[in-house]
Design goal:
The protein has 11 helices and 12 strands. The protein has about 260 residues and is α/β, with parallel strands linked by helices. A hairpin with a 2-residue loop joins strand 2 and strand 3. Helix 1 packs parallel to helix 3.
């Protein structure tokens, strides 16, 4: 099943990976370095052309704790664009808590693997548009597999089948995090993204691998994703979101200016 290409503006989404209250960034989910305060970056991106913002408490699941709501509240107070929040989401109480702290959408990853029914439960309670499945995916000898706990644990779950299950269960969006391309800055994982886009009809967000403006142009011209997510390229000011959007428009890719 191939999803028809929609004539909707493509979204550009910066990602805040937060550990111990600070934004960090690494490569292939490892060797994390400190970047900045989450609220500072959130305000900057909100004011400078980001369409949405993603906030991940990246060690909440592996630490077995709840997401840092005080940090989230500071971030939510500084943004005026849709905010997706994930990390340590394991039950409906977690959904309720982060929504009350200012999230517009809730991203669930390891918690959905442990309890797949939470996708449908949350969709019925809060609406499909509120539920985002975040998939950490790596190519293994047996195909693309789902990883949990911040990329630490491999499962035998096939990535494409997991995306289909999420859609059927009521998820409104899927974020595909490629562990193989994360932080490498050599482009997005196009083969993986095309497999997911062909399998589902709900919006797909590409994550992992952005290193240049041309990577985003290649992404949108060669896949049917709805959005591109970036971290390092924006955090280190390698190019601005405005510059990126101008070049996308020059290449006949519709974006919101």
């Amino acid at each position: 099943m191939r999803r028809l290409k929609k004539m909707l503006a493509k979204r550009i989404i910066p990602c805040l990976d937060v550990r111990n209250g600070r934004v960090v960034k690494g490569k292939k989910f490892e060797n994390l370095i400190d970047i900045d305060e989450p609220a500072n970056l959130a305000a900057f991106y909100s004011e400078n052309g980001a369409d949405e913002l993603v906030f991940y408490d990246i060690t909440a699941s592996s630490d077995g704790r709840a997401l840092f709501c005080n940090v989230l509240e500071e971030v939510a107070a500084n943004v005026f664009i849709p905010l997706t929040v994930g990390g340590g989401i394991n039950n409906l109480n977690d959904f309720d808590r982060v929504l009350r702290c200012g999230a517009d959408k809730v991203s669930i990853n390891s918690g959905a693997v442990a309890n797949p029914s939470i996708i449908s439960q949350a969709a019925k309670l809060y609406g499909n548009q509120c539920v985002v499945l975040s998939m950490d995916v790596k190519l293994t000898d047996s195909g693309y597999k789902i990883f949990t706990k911040g990329g630490r644990n491999q499962t035998e779950i096939d990535a494409v089948e997991w995306a289909k299950f999420a859609q059927d269960s009521g998820a409104g969006e899927i974020v595909v995090n490629s562990i193989d391309t994360d932080g490498v800055k050599r482009g997005f994982d196009l083969p993986l993204l095309n497999l997911i886009c062909e399998a589902v009809d709900i919006p797909v967000v590409a994550s992992g691998g952005a290193g240049s403006i041309s990577d985003f142009i290649t992404l949108f011209k060669n896949t049917n994703v709805d959005a591109g997510l970036g971290a390092s390229v924006f955090h280190f000011n390698e190019f601005s979101i405005k510059e990126l959007k101008n070049e996308l428009r020059n290449n006949k890719i519709e974006v919101r200016m």
